[in-house]
Predict the 3D structure of the following.
Amino acid sequence: MNALLLRDQTLRPELFIWNGPVSREQMNEWLQQHGLEIPDELLQFWQVTGGGELFETETILGPFGDRQLGDDVDSVNEFHRARGMDRRYLIVHVGSALTAIRLSDKKWVILDQDTYAEIEEYDSFEGWYERVLRAEFAERYGLPRS
């Protein structure tokens, strides 16, 4: 899973509000229903946390998040696909950026919120977290340098 995120959660637990664990069986069924293959580190993260809120303004979407709150993978992706987002992306984070998994190679990408053009690319969940969310919020919330 994402060691840096887990360390931050240990240091400042009040900044991380997760939806709750998802069983491997539930995850496998959801992935099969959606015909998805996602990065293992995201799969592990979802199994442990179910996705949720962090740093007050950021949401890592979960497969079983609350649809009415817009923190579930399905409704957020349906919304953006209706606005023209290509199906080769699966949005997994909303907030200060729009982050998706590029399904063809499982890379983490930041998308332009209007055009869905790729702005940045990351090889891993931890790399994305460190360079995007942590870069934005670590100093504000007194998290030590990684």
